[in-house]
Amino acid sequence: MHFAKAEANGNDFLLIELDACAGRERGRLARVLCDRHRGLGADGVEFYSRDGGRIRLELINADGSAAEISGNGTRCAAAWMARQHGFREGAILTGGGERWTKVLGEANGVWEIESRMGAPDWRPEAVPLRGAHALDNGRWRLRLPAWGELECHALSLGNPQACVQVETFAENWMQLAAAIQNSGYFPAGVNVEFWRRVNDRAIEIRIYERGVGATLSSGTGSTAAAISALTVGAVRSPVRVISPGGEQTVAWEGAGQQTHLRGGARIIAEGEYLGTVP
User: Fold this and answer.
1) Whole-angstrom Cα distance, residue 70 to residue 262?
2) Tens digit of each residue's pLDDT (9 = 90 or more) over 68-95
3) Shared domain check, 89 and 11
4) Residues 252, 151 share a domain
5) Greatest pairwise CA separation for the chain in angstroms
6) Same domain membership, residue 99 and residue 34
């Protein structure tokens, strides 16, 4: 089975043509391939297909669960398509909707790419919540056993996000993120981002994703955290979003407007998987 591997700020994905795994259960396949000790290792697999000039992506997380969209995964796929097929601009279809994506250039193996990430969706039906207390401006109050109360922004960018403002990142932030995911407030699951203000043009974030856990970066998570910071007036657009894996830039001009995510992606390997394929 032929594969490519790409990363965007350390958020890594396997890229596999859908036809290459016909007849195989993709969730199980992703679990095997993403294993970092006995497989190829990745945060997820972007299964892709091409129909003329249209690119379709199907994202499966490292634990075998399906996800709607990854901003970084979409960027990785765009870099691969640019390298292999000359892609420069067009719509990429994801489970979270169509994302218009443009390749801005390449230098030293890094492809600079910008994607329209859609307008944030604050509706409760977009991010199902059960038992949380509604506040204002898309904020919700959660009460977590052993943690107390916290407030978060809940929004969708094609996938569900919960964004929490903090002053510092606690050593046990991953345990708190897991507690939010497992609290029952988000019956459809949620990606969790903690963010802190650096200055009026930058925030720093930590990310805990459904089906993966802590990741070095996230495109949709970076976008959601930037929107959260912009909504409370902590920063101005465009926002530099700093994650453990690197930086990307988010631009958003307010309610009803498209968000724009810009950052790099790099193809780091391609080859044939020789292990047992389920």
Assistant:
1) 13
2) 999 999 999 999 999 999 999 999 999 9
3) yes
4) yes
5) 53
6) yes
